[in-house]
Amino acid sequence: ALLAAQNEKHKSKQVAEHGREMLEKTKEYRDEIFWLESEYNGQKNKADLLKAKIANLEAQSRREETELNSLRAEYQRIFATQTPINEICPTCSQKLPADRIAATKEKVEAKKKEELASSASREKTTADRHNATLAEIQAISNKLTATVELEYTHDINRQKGLLRGLDTGDD
């Protein structure tokens, strides 16, 4: 009877010890799952923010392309413009002196050159801004690719499987 009581006491002690070990393992797995899920959610939020930023930059890029096309068309319009020089005096209907005609042509050409330079400068500024936008899109896309390659879901599922194994192994 004494031996049976000691044996029973020993069994109880082992069961209690096993129960504590199982609780410790369960807590350990749950803590790791919580940490992994938190980390995963943080990375997912970063990825979502990067995707939104890319979408905004792509919209900006499309606006810049439209502006560039408009500026190119403006440059071509200015370049193709031929301002007629009136060589006849509107008052007396006589031919104007050659030096006056030449001066008028110079003024018209100088104005055209100035307009072309201004248009080209605006086009260059817009093209530079557009190239910077495209470079930023690429940089963020690279960052997003690195962020999206998450292994957290695999780790979380592995830990949850271990936790389920503990739960079912106890029954």
Describe the fold and architecture.
The protein is mainly α and 171 residues long. The chain has helices spanning 2-80, 98-148, 152-170. The two termini are 30 Å apart.
Defining traits:
mainly alpha; rod-shaped
Q: Quick recap of the structure?
A:
This protein is mainly alpha-helical and 171 residues long.
Q: Mean of residue pLDDT?
A: 88
The profile of the biggest β sheet is: none
Q: Which structural category fits the helices and strands?
A: mainly alpha
Number of helices: 3
Give the uncertain stretches in residue-range form.
none
For the secondary structure, the number of strands is 0
Rg measurement, Å: 39 Å
The level of helicity is over 70%
The helix-strand sequence is HHH
Task: Calculate the terminal CA-CA distance, rounded to whole Å.
Answer: 30 Å
Backbone shape = rod-shaped
Into which percentage range does the β-strand content fall? under 5%
Please render the helix and strand layout as text:
Layout lengths: L1 H79 L17 H51 L3 H19 L1
Helix pairs in contact: 1-2, 1-3
